[in-house]
UniProtKB/TrEMBL annotation:
Residues 20-85 form the PPIase cyclophilin-type domain. It comes from the Eukaryota. It comes from Triparma retinervis. One of its GO terms (molecular function) is peptidyl-prolyl cis-trans isomerase activity. This is PPIase cyclophilin-type domain-containing protein. InterPro entries: Cyclophilin-like_dom_sf, Cyclophilin-type_PPIase_dom.
């Protein structure tokens, strides 16, 4: 999730278009276990705004600077697993969505090829304050609300 061309917010679409990338993070040597949240990347300095949630343990990930966990689903993984998707992206799944087509054609491509795909309409991440997350959506127990 997080492909900028699918955002309903025009400012978000403009801000996160290539070649604007998010700098790689220093390795934190955390494992990619079920529920890990990370930017999707394909090489050094390749991260834009695409994120993924790992549906299972992935010990092969986390060894490169563009593969750094930024959070974990602490509760509600059953909700994540109920999202209707078409599996991994086309690079790893021939029936999955093609990220370049999503970026170039946006919503039109998704509606035509993947009409049942669930979408996140809006997501806000709050700042961690004394171990608790604080955002305009309310307070959670840390990380992502």
């Amino acid at each position: 999730f997080g492909v900028p061309s699918l955002s309903v917010d025009a400012d978000v679409r403009r801000k996160y278009r290539f070649p604007n990338t998010i700098p790689d993070d220093p390795p934190n040597h955390r494992s990619f276990e079920r529920g890990t949240i990370s930017y999707a990347g394909s090489g050094p300095k390749s991260r834009v705004a695409d994120l993924f949630i790992s549906y299972s343990d992935n010990p092969g990930l986390g060894k490169s600077p563009w593969e750094v966990p930024l959070g974990y689903v602490s509760e509600g993984m059953d909700v994540v697993e109920s999202f209707h998707s078409y599996g991994d992206i086309s690079a790893f799944n021939s029936k999955g969505p093609n990220q370049n087509k999503m970026r170039n054609r946006g919503e039109e491509y998704v509606e035509e090829e993947f009409p049942l795909m669930d979408r996140i309409i809006k997501c806000e991440v709050g700042q961690s304050v004394g171990g608790a997350s604080k955002s305009s959506l309310g307070q959670g127990k840390g990380g992502i609300s």
